[in-house]
């Protein structure tokens, strides 16, 4: 089997593998992780393992470490247990919401409006972002793994900028939801935002940074991105589309409550990802240091979210999750794998 090489963000080359080679690496990761039970078992589908492998350029050792860290985070943070009532206050202004349409590739769309920030709690904002990510994933159609972020900069000003929130958001997105973002469109960002985005670039993995697209309503070249990605009949008028409906918090709350009802059945359905006949281990028994190496530790120390001064509960003026990270990755060879976990 041949392995092709293609440019990537980390070291100049990204491994391109056949489906057989990918499956062999997935199996190896599963063997190293060991048998799991409960929600950890459901989360570790082939699709999920493949996303962690892609995020680490198919390096098994690094993918295993990343996956273990994700499992530990999920066991402690319990994102699948967040419900609408827990975050409804954060959602009131429509600063983040899932649209009722998808893009031309079937990807779930999250709209973000940082100027509608209504909270100074980083902890609350991150919790709502996690809820929105989980909801977007829950609503992905079969054979689609990624989502689109549409970030509207109308009314955005300097008071909405926070490196701390950007850092924490980047950490959650890149480390806990690898390869989930397909594209981020920054729509009509003001001129002062561009140097800020350049400043926070080191917080983003290059592979993620390269998926961000700047679109301006008065630029025909960038406007074409919207036409290529969306059906303009369904796209909101704020982004150059023809839908003038607007955001209604009451209708949105009902949608989210209905979605919440789907969550328990997903996380209790049967799944047998491991063929190794050994007693399954709990998340608490996973040793995170077993696959680390000096280069990984260095990256962790300088990675988003590892700032010792970052207090998740601190109050500060915030931007939202606008400038984080995002990607255009429509053909990643993962079609056919379970989209949710």
UniProtKB/TrEMBL annotation:
CRAL-TRIO domain sequence ranges: 84-247
Pfam families tied to this protein: CRAL_TRIO, CRAL_TRIO_N
Top-level lineage group: Eukaryota
InterPro entries xrefs: CRAL-TRIO_dom, CRAL-TRIO_dom_sf, CRAL/TRIO_N_dom, CRAL/TRIO_N_dom_sf, PI_Transfer_CRAL-TRIO
Bias kind Basic and acidic residues: ranges: 286-302
SUPFAM superfamilies to which the protein is assigned, alphabetical: CRAL/TRIO domain, CRAL/TRIO N-terminal domain
PROSITE patterns for this protein: CRAL_TRIO
Disordered: annotated span: 263-341
Database matches in PANTHER family: F16L1.9 PROTEIN, GH16843P
Name listed for the protein in its UniProt record: CRAL-TRIO domain-containing protein
Organism lineage string: Eukaryota, Viridiplantae, Streptophyta, Embryophyta, Tracheophyta
């Amino acid at each position: 089997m041949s392995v092709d090489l293609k440019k990537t963000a980390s070291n100049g080359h990204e491994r391109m593998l056949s489906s057989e080679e990918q499956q062999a690496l997935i199996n190896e990761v599963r063997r190293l992780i060991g048998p799991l039970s409960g929600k950890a078992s459901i989360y570790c589908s082939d699709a999920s393992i493949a996303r962690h492998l892609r995020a680490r350029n198919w390096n098994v050792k690094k993918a295993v470490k990343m996956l273990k860290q994700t499992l530990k985070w999920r066991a402690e943070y319990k994102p699948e247990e967040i419900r609408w009532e827990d975050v409804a206050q954060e959602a009131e202004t429509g600063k983040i919401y899932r649209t009722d349409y998808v893009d031309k590739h079937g990807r779930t769309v999250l709209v973000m409006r940082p100027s509608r920030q209504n909270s100074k709690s980083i902890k609350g904002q991150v919790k709502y972002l996690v809820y929105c990510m989980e909801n977007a994933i829950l609503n992905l159609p079969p054979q689609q793994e990624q989502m689109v972020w549409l970030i509207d900069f109308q009314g955005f000003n300097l008071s909405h900028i926070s490196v701390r929130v950007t850092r924490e958001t980047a950490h959650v997105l890149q480390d806990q939801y690898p390869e989930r973002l397909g594209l981020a469109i920054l729509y009509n960002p003001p001129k002062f935002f561009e140097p800020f985005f350049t400043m926070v670039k080191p917080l983003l993995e290059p592979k993620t940074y390269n998926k961000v697209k700047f679109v301006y309503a008065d630029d025909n070249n960038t406007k074409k991105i919207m036409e290529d990605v969306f059906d303009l009949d369904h796209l909101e008028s704020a982004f150059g589309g023809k839908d003038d409906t607007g955001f209604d918090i009451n209708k949105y709350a009902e949608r989210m409550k209905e979605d919440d009802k789907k969550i328990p059945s997903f996380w209790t359905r049967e799944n047998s990802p491991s063929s190794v006949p050994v007693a399954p281990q709990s998340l608490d028994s996973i040793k995170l240091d077993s696959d680390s190496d000096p280069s990984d530790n260095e990256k962790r120390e300088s990675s988003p979210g590892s700032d010792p001064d970052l207090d998740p509960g601190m109050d500060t003026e915030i931007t939202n999750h606008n400038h984080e990270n995002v990607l255009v990755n429509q053909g990643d060879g993962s079609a056919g794998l379970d989209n949710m976990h």
